[in-house]
Design a protein that fits this description.
By secondary structure, this protein is mainly α. The protein has four helices and two strands, in the order ββαααα. It has two domains: about 50 residues, no CATH class; about 60 residues, no CATH class. It is about 35% helix and about 5% strand. It has a two-stranded antiparallel sheet with strand order 1-2. A hairpin with a 4-residue loop joins strand 1 and strand 2. The longest helix has 23 residues. The radius of gyration is 27 Å and the shape is elongated. The structure holds zinc ion. Zinc ion binds next to loops.
Length: about 140
Protein backbone atom coordinates (compact mmCIF):
# COMPACT_ATOMS: atom_id res chain seq x y z
CA UNK A 1 0.00 0.00 0.00
CA UNK A 2 1.41 3.35 -1.03
CA UNK A 3 1.81 6.01 1.56
CA UNK A 4 -0.20 9.15 0.97
CA UNK A 5 1.88 11.93 -0.50
CA UNK A 6 2.86 14.61 1.97
CA UNK A 7 4.45 16.90 -0.55
CA UNK A 8 4.01 20.59 0.02
CA UNK A 9 3.21 22.72 -2.96
CA UNK A 10 6.07 25.20 -3.45
CA UNK A 11 3.61 28.06 -3.32
CA UNK A 12 2.51 26.94 0.15
CA UNK A 13 5.96 27.41 1.64
CA UNK A 14 6.18 30.12 4.24
CA UNK A 15 8.96 32.37 2.97
CA UNK A 16 9.57 34.25 6.21
CA UNK A 17 9.62 33.44 9.90
CA UNK A 18 9.00 36.07 12.55
CA UNK A 19 11.28 35.96 15.57
CA UNK A 20 12.05 38.07 18.61
CA UNK A 21 8.44 38.76 19.52
CA UNK A 22 7.59 40.09 16.07
CA UNK A 23 10.62 42.33 15.75
CA UNK A 24 12.81 40.17 13.52
CA UNK A 25 11.71 38.88 10.16
CA UNK A 26 14.03 36.50 8.32
CA UNK A 27 13.94 33.82 5.65
CA UNK A 28 12.52 30.50 6.80
CA UNK A 29 14.10 27.12 6.13
CA UNK A 30 12.35 25.34 3.24
CA UNK A 31 13.06 21.80 4.45
CA UNK A 32 10.04 19.55 4.93
CA UNK A 33 9.57 16.84 7.52
CA UNK A 34 9.21 13.33 6.13
CA UNK A 35 6.97 12.24 8.99
CA UNK A 36 4.61 15.17 9.40
CA UNK A 37 5.02 16.87 6.01
CA UNK A 38 5.39 20.23 7.68
CA UNK A 39 7.96 22.87 6.91
CA UNK A 40 10.94 23.39 9.21
CA UNK A 41 10.40 26.34 11.52
CA UNK A 42 13.97 27.49 11.90
CA UNK A 43 15.39 30.55 10.17
CA UNK A 44 17.46 29.84 7.09
CA UNK A 45 21.14 30.64 7.02
CA UNK A 46 21.96 33.86 5.25
CA UNK A 47 24.73 32.17 3.26
CA UNK A 48 22.57 29.21 2.22
CA UNK A 49 21.92 29.03 -1.52
CA UNK A 50 18.89 26.76 -1.04
CA UNK A 51 17.39 28.65 1.90
CA UNK A 52 18.07 25.98 4.54
CA UNK A 53 18.88 26.10 8.23
CA UNK A 54 22.02 24.59 9.75
CA UNK A 55 20.24 21.28 10.42
CA UNK A 56 19.06 20.85 6.84
CA UNK A 57 22.20 21.56 4.86
CA UNK A 58 22.47 25.34 4.99
CA UNK A 59 26.21 25.12 5.52
CA UNK A 60 26.73 22.89 2.51
CA UNK A 61 28.68 24.39 -0.31
CA UNK A 62 27.67 21.60 -2.67
CA UNK A 63 30.01 19.32 -4.50
CA UNK A 64 33.50 20.72 -4.88
CA UNK A 65 35.39 17.94 -6.63
CA UNK A 66 35.03 17.22 -10.32
CA UNK A 67 33.79 13.68 -9.59
CA UNK A 68 31.20 14.99 -7.15
CA UNK A 69 29.87 17.56 -9.59
CA UNK A 70 29.65 14.94 -12.34
CA UNK A 71 27.78 12.58 -9.99
CA UNK A 72 25.18 15.29 -9.31
CA UNK A 73 24.85 16.07 -13.02
CA UNK A 74 24.30 12.37 -13.75
CA UNK A 75 21.75 12.07 -10.96
CA UNK A 76 19.69 15.01 -12.23
CA UNK A 77 19.84 14.16 -15.93
CA UNK A 78 16.30 13.60 -17.16
CA UNK A 79 16.52 13.53 -20.94
CA UNK A 80 19.84 15.02 -22.01
CA UNK A 81 18.29 17.50 -24.45
CA UNK A 82 19.74 20.53 -22.73
CA UNK A 83 23.18 19.35 -21.77
CA UNK A 84 26.09 21.43 -23.01
CA UNK A 85 27.06 18.66 -25.38
CA UNK A 86 23.56 18.40 -26.84
CA UNK A 87 23.32 22.18 -27.23
CA UNK A 88 26.68 22.32 -28.99
CA UNK A 89 25.59 19.54 -31.33
CA UNK A 90 22.31 21.29 -32.06
CA UNK A 91 24.12 24.58 -32.71
CA UNK A 92 26.59 22.87 -35.05
CA UNK A 93 23.76 21.23 -36.99
CA UNK A 94 21.87 24.51 -37.18
CA UNK A 95 24.92 26.31 -38.59
CA UNK A 96 25.33 23.51 -41.14
CA UNK A 97 21.69 23.87 -42.16
CA UNK A 98 22.12 27.61 -42.69
CA UNK A 99 25.19 26.98 -44.83
CA UNK A 100 23.29 24.40 -46.88
CA UNK A 101 20.64 27.05 -47.44
CA UNK A 102 23.41 29.36 -48.67
CA UNK A 103 24.51 26.61 -51.08
CA UNK A 104 21.03 26.42 -52.58
CA UNK A 105 20.93 30.17 -53.12
CA UNK A 106 24.45 30.41 -54.53
CA UNK A 107 23.77 27.56 -56.97
CA UNK A 108 20.41 29.16 -57.84
CA UNK A 109 18.52 25.97 -57.06
CA UNK A 110 15.82 27.87 -55.19
CA UNK A 111 14.32 31.30 -54.87
CA UNK A 112 12.72 30.64 -51.49
CA UNK A 113 12.87 33.23 -48.75
CA UNK A 114 15.95 33.10 -46.53
CA UNK A 115 15.63 32.01 -42.94
CA UNK A 116 15.62 35.07 -40.73
CA UNK A 117 17.29 35.76 -37.44
CA UNK A 118 20.63 35.19 -35.85
CA UNK A 119 22.68 32.35 -37.28
CA UNK A 120 24.16 29.72 -35.02
CA UNK A 121 27.74 29.98 -33.88
CA UNK A 122 30.10 28.34 -36.34
CA UNK A 123 28.14 29.68 -39.32
CA UNK A 124 30.13 31.37 -42.06
CA UNK A 125 28.29 32.82 -45.02
CA UNK A 126 28.84 31.18 -48.42
CA UNK A 127 28.75 33.77 -51.19
CA UNK A 128 30.44 32.15 -54.18
CA UNK A 129 30.70 28.77 -55.89
CA UNK A 130 34.20 28.19 -54.58
CA UNK A 131 32.99 28.61 -51.00
CA UNK A 132 30.14 26.17 -51.67
CA UNK A 133 32.54 23.65 -53.18
CA UNK A 134 34.86 23.95 -50.18
CA UNK A 135 31.95 23.53 -47.74
CA UNK A 136 30.64 20.44 -49.51
CA UNK A 137 34.08 18.89 -49.65
CA UNK A 138 34.78 19.35 -45.98
CA UNK A 139 31.38 18.30 -44.64
CA UNK A 140 29.12 16.11 -46.71
CA UNK A 141 31.39 14.14 -48.92
CA UNK A 142 33.30 12.89 -45.89
CA UNK A 143 30.17 11.78 -44.06
CA UNK A 144 28.85 9.56 -46.87
ZN1 LIG B 1 15.54 23.47 8.59
Amino acid sequence: MARPSKQIDKSQYETYVILGGGRIRCLRCTAKSVRSGEQCGKPAMRSSKTQKCTHHGGRSKGATTVEGKQRIIDAHLKHGESTLLAKAEYSHDSAKLSMLEDCLHVLEMTNAKRRQGRKASGYRPLVDVEGVRQFLLETHLHNV
